[in-house]
Specification:
Bound molecules: NADPH dihydro-nicotinamide-adenine-dinucleotide phosphate, (2Z)-2-iminopentanedioic acid
Strand order of the largest sheet: 9-8-7-6-10-11-12
CATH architecture of the domain at 209-370: 3-Layer(aba) Sandwich
Order of helices and strands: HHHHEEEHEHEHHEHEEHHEEHEHEHHHH
Number of strands: 12
CATH topology of the domain at 209-370: Rossmann fold
Radius of gyration: 21 Å
CATH class of the domain at 209-370: Alpha Beta
Strand content: 15-25%
Length: about 450
Amino acid sequence: MSAYLDHVLDGLHHRYPHQKEFIQAVDEVFASTSILFEDGGLYASYNIAERLIEPDRIISFKVPWMDDHGHIQVNRGFRVEFNNAIGPYKGGLRFHPSVNEGVLKFLGFEQIFKNALTTLPIGGAKGGSDFDPKGKSDAEVFRFCQAFMSELFKYIGPYQDVPAGDMGVGAREIGYLYGTYKKLTSRSEMGVLTGKPLDMGGSLVRTEATGYGLVYFTDTVLKHFGITTHGLRTVVSGAGNVAIYAAKKAKELGYHVIAMSDSKGYIVDEDLDLELVKTIKEKERGSLKDYIQRAGHGSYKEGSVYDDPTLDVKVVLPCAKENEIDAKRALNLVKQDVLVVGEGANMPSNNEAIEIYKQNHIIYLPGKAANAGGVATSVLEMNQNATFRHDAFDVVDHQLQNIMHAIYDQCQMMIDQYHLDPYDYQSAANLAGMKKVCDAMIAQGQY
Ligand code: NDP
Ligand code: 2IT
């Protein structure tokens, strides 16, 4: 790493020693883009790295709300507006007990480069709360969303900052948030939030987009290497929005999806009933442990699917949460001769795991490229909202496929330009995203 980047990273460790996910994300990006930051070079002379790692602003607020027993609960709410060099701040909201400022800074930082890769004009942001929607009634979720938006609405807008969903935030929550925004502002600014329900300005395909985009991207890369994909044994971790639609598209394209997981355990089923998974997880907000009895086949175990040495999978699509795969679990994938890890989640592989993939020639497709279909389709939703259009499913799906292909093209271009290892989509994605953001910052003379 260049002396300049070393110095910037040192400062980061010093200022934010407890924000370990954020430091991990910055480390990962800097290590693979250091060629752009040589001492005395253009980006170093503009001190771009130090400017990039500080968010433009962090909005932090309390969220008091009343539960069904009449008790006042208090959660913390945040919006990290990281960088708007390319366009309005854009990125999801996460409602999960693990949310804190460091987690949202990691997610917001990743979002800057992901959004740059989509080819669309959007900057990077992330927000959320340590509120846990699990086990809450609809009325409680509504009251929480109302309280959350009564602070957030001051800082967002269709050309300012456009939140969407992430873990714990789906169409239900976005509907409540959007309804509150409209009440508070008296404006029907549809483009202020994406992932809206379909009958209030939502876009077809947005629900499916992250998972579908992940599979389009992974499939394109496997075909690029001449690999026959039909029947490849596949594990999808998670059973939420991203995982369900990754599994659906993978099955449609002929992959043999044999396992899925949730926060408690995982199912293995050679005849996976995805409709049943959808019913249990999407409709009933239940647990996968009920799957076996209702399906009448398969098996369920507690713990992580990545600790199981018996799966014999070739395609791994982590779609749950950050740092799900560490070195030990990565070695377990090596033993199974896994061909590809395509990340639907943000940073599901830690840096040691990524190193192990690289040493063992597992094709590694980082989240910021592979899961960018979600945010890209959010922009397609903004586009429809701006012109009061509602595009057909096939129209949006086709645009999504083109965008995932454009991300693949940018990666291939970086591989050629920088003479990277042909498997090194990690450096390729980071370089492509980084160059675009840095060039935009310099062109605007931003300080
Ligand atoms: P959801 O809340 O819909 O689903 C999350 C899933 O992950 C749930 O099935 C949950 O299980 C499971 N999970 C949570 N913690 C763990 C754990 N420790 N081990 C195993 N499984 C776990 O979230 P999304 O599908 O929206 O998001 C998943 C990932 O994809 C996140 O990293 C998110 O940042 C990323 N992402 C999301 C996008 C989107 O548009 N939604 C876009 C791009 C990336 P349980 O049901 O038991 O809680
Ligand atoms: O991580 C992500 O890209 C998302 N949660 C989607 C963000 C968005 O604005 O659609």
